[in-house]
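Changelog note: in this version the structure field was regenerated for every chain. One regenerated record is shown below for reference.
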Amino acid sequence: MLLGLGQTAQVYLARGPRGEKVALKIPKKEVRENPRLAERFAREVAFSLSLRHPHLVRGLWGLPFGEEAFLALEYLPGGTLEERLLKGAFPQEEAVKVLSQVGEALLFLHGKGLLHQDVKPSNVFVGEGVYKLGDLGTLRAKEDRSPEYAGSPPYLAPELFLGGLPSEKSEAYSFGVMAYELLTGRRPFLGETLEDLRNAHLLLPPPPTRLPPRLDRALRRLLAKNPEERMTIREFLDVLQNPEGPPAQGTPERPRRFPLFRRK
């Protein structure tokens, strides 16, 4: 049974050697024949099989290259978080659970010197009471200085639109966009064109929320235009555990114009 059809791969429901359900990811022919795309799939196989965390989708076995390339992953019956969001807004308690689990997975990757680069609801998979971050083919070393990077414009940090490089700070911003979407039921920045979306990320403040004041302030700091003023994922997770508590520690974001810069 076909579970999903993406730009680079098809995912099928299959059976493992002991009869267990698995998600079988098969790269498309054009991916296998394109060196750059084939390398990305091979990275996904390698990372999925080697990285272990309760909130990363677990790889079971795979073949990275060739006509028979595949990746078998644990099967999570709830589909993606994006699909779940289409059914309606999350209760705040459940949104906190999602963000706590995915946030811990990101912190684990950062501790390994890696960035996910493409944090968004369609890359979060839903199990029985558990949420897991997947699509590990986009992982990149934090010290990688190459100009090419992965990412989806609705979740892209302002500095990346201006030629900056991915970092833990840009990852925190993407996580913040997803957090806003989960906690309010809508994305903070919209645009009919890529240029509209870019300008929204660069220039517009996130719309007001009805969240508890402490959580609202933390969310706005997570979405700070200036990466140097941005809250970290760890700091935001701490606020999530006590959203009604005293104001978060640290200097609040000062309203100021985002500095324009270019990568040298």
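Spot check on this record: The first helix runs from residue 29 to 32. Residues 23 and 60 are 10 Å apart (CA to CA).
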